[in-house]
């Protein structure tokens, strides 16, 4: 069963949870062959019920000790732009769509997402462009982010944040 896993980490990102479960977005996911949607909703005020998304099998929870198994089972990971969540998905070799929270001030997440996108490791969008991005995305352009190289990741973060 083709699965999309959505994670917001430990944050509150209700706009992402609302966006991914809206009927139009669910229809796009279904049209792309995804049948199961697993949501890690974090501290947000929204925790969708299992029957709230017709046409896909929905599972939602707030937190787990580890999301590694959900990532492993996913055919697509959609994540907030937190470095830990991105690194975990990329390290697992999963196609990654990062949704940047454009409501945050001094948004370092955007710089990180832009750089990883420029290097062809992920796709990124905002909540307002999520549905269209899912409709038009081409996951075949993504290149693996080689895990186990913390120095490279540290250098990447320095580059993304303009520290050199």
TrEMBL record:
SUPFAM superfamilies: UDP-Glycosyltransferase/glycogen phosphorylase. InterPro entries: Alg13-like, Glyco_trans_28_C. It is an enzyme of class 2 (transferase). Residues 3-143 form the Glycosyl transferase family 28 C-terminal domain. Its main location: endoplasmic reticulum. It comes from the Eukaryota. GO terms for molecular function: N-acetylglucosaminyldiphosphodolichol N-acetylglucosaminyltransferase activity. Coiled coil: none annotated. GO terms for cellular component: endoplasmic reticulum. Its EC number is 2.4.1.141. It is found in: Endoplasmic reticulum. Keywords: Endoplasmic reticulum, Glycosyltransferase, Transferase. One of its GO terms (biological process) is dolichol-linked oligosaccharide biosynthetic process. Belongs to the glycosyltransferase 28 family. This is UDP-N-acetylglucosamine transferase subunit ALG13. It comes from Cyclopterus lumpus (Lumpsucker).
């Amino acid at each position: 069963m083709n699965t999309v896993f959505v994670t917001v980490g430990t944050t509150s990102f209700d706009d992402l949870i609302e966006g991914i479960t809206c009927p139009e977005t669910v229809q796009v996911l279904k049209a792309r062959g995804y049948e199961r949607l697993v949501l890690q909703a974090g501290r947000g005020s929204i925790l969708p019920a299992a029957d709230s998304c017709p046409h896909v099998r929905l599972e939602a929870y707030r937190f787990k000790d580890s999301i590694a198994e959900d990532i492993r089972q996913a055919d697509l990971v959609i994540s907030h732009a937190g470095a830990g969540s991105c690194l975990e998905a990329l390290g697992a070799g999963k196609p990654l769509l990062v949704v940047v929270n454009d409501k945050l001030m001094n948004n370092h997440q955007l710089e990180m997402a832009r750089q990883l996108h420029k290097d062809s490791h992920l796709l990124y969008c905002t909540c307002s462009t999520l549905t269209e991005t899912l409709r038009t995305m081409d996951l075949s352009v993504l290149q693996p982010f080689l895990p186990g190289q913390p120095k490279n990741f540290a250098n990447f973060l320095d580059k993304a944040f303009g520290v050199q």
